[in-house]
Specification:
This protein is an alpha+beta fold. The protein folds into four domains: 99 residues; 104 residues, PAS domain (Beta-Lactamase, 2-Layer Sandwich), CATH 3.30.450.20; 125 residues, Beta-Lactamase, CATH 3.30.450.20; 54 residues, no CATH class. Helices cover 49% and strands 21% of the residues. It contains twelve helices and twelve strands. The strands form three sheets. The chain has a five-stranded antiparallel beta sheet with strand order 2-1-5-4-3. It has a five-stranded antiparallel beta sheet with strand order 7-6-10-9-8. Strands 11-12 form a two-stranded antiparallel ribbon. Helix 1 runs antiparallel to helix 2. The chain is rod-shaped, with a radius of gyration of 48 Å.
Length: 401
Amino acid sequence: MPKDDKPIKAAHAGAQLSVVRSTVAVVLQTLIVMMATFFAVGMFLNILGVKAGGIREWYEILLTCVLSLAVLYQTTLRPLARLAAEHAAASAESRFWTVAQSTLDGILLFDADKRIAFANQAAERMYGYKAGSLQGQCMEILLPEEIKREFRECLETYLRTKQDTVIGQGATERAGLRTNGERFPVEISVSELVANGVIQFVAVVRDISARKRAEHEIQERTTRLNALLANNPLAIVVINKSRRVQMCNPAFEDLFQYKSAEIAGLEVDTLVAPEELKAEASGMTESNLQGKVSHLITRRRRKDGSLVDVEIHGVPLLIGHQVEGGYGIYQNISERKKLQLYEQMLPVCCVCGKIRDDQGLAPGQGPWDHLDRFISKHSDAKLTHTFCPECLAQYRKEQGI
C-alpha cells in the first residue's frame, strides 16, 4: 500500500467496521427484546389465569407488539438512527480525506488555540514538512514574523465579534514560510467550521510563486517595450483587430501632428492616408491583420493636410500565436529623397562641358572629366567619334572644304 494512501484506507476501514459492529448490536438487541417481551407477556397472562386458546394467542400477539414498540424504540430505533448518523459521518470523513489528499491546494484544519488538527499532503509539501509532522503544531510556524501578530489579532477579533477582515472574507494574498526559512507568496482563504459545538477553522492555501514570477516577467517586458516605443526615433502606432488605434509613440505624434489621446480608438488609415491612397493603406492593414509582414514606400497625410514621404513597415501583433492587432512603423524619408535627387544630378560645366565625378567621394570633391571618358568609366557603353550635321557644316566651312 502506498504510504500516502494509508490515512484514506484507514478511514474506509474504520467506517466499515463501525457499520458492522452497529448492525450486529441492533440485530441482537431486537432478538433479545422480542424474546423477553414474549416471555413476560406469557407470565402475565398466566398470573391473570388466561387459559390457552385463540383468545390467549390474540392477547399474546397484541401485548407483545404494544410492549415491544416502546422497548424497541429505545433498543433498536435509536441505535438505527445513531448507526445512520455514524455511517454518514464516516462517509463524509472518508470523502473529506479523499478530496483533501487529492487537491493541489493546501488544506489546514486548526482550532481556536491555533493548533493544527489536520494538514493534507499538498500543504505539507508546500511548506516543506514531512508527512504528519504538522499535526499538533501551532499555525504560527507557517507564518513570517511580521504576519504572526496580524494572525493572532484576526483570530481574537473573530472569536470575540464573529467579524474580521480575513476570516470568512475569501482569498487574500499573504506570505508563507517554508521549513527552511524561505518566504513565498500564497493566496489563502480562512473560514469557520463548527462540529459538535467545537469551533475550528479551515484554511485553503495556494502557492502563487509561479504566478507572481510570470506577472513580474510580464511587467518587465511591458516596461522594456514601453521604453523602446517611447524612445524610438521611428514613428510607431499600435492598432487592434478592429483597426483602432491603441497607442502611439512620441515620434508618431511629431511626424503626424496628432496626440496619442486624440486618436485613441480611431482608425489609423482614415487619419493618415490621403484619399487617393485609402485603398493602398487598407490593403496593407488587412495584410498585417492576417499575420503578414508588409513594406511600402509611399506618402501619408499630416493633421494639417500636408503630405510626407514615408517608408512603412507593417508587423502583426501576436499574442499566444493569435493575431490581436498590428504595429505600423513609419520613417520620414523626405530628406532621403531630396538627397537621392541631389545625388542623381550630374554637375556639368556650362563652358567646356566637363562632368564632375563625385562617385565614392564627398559631394563637390570629385575630378572633372570629359563626357566620353565619364561614360566609358561608369558604363559598358562603347563610344565612337563622328560629326553631327551642324558641326560637320561648320568644320567644312572653317577648313574651306
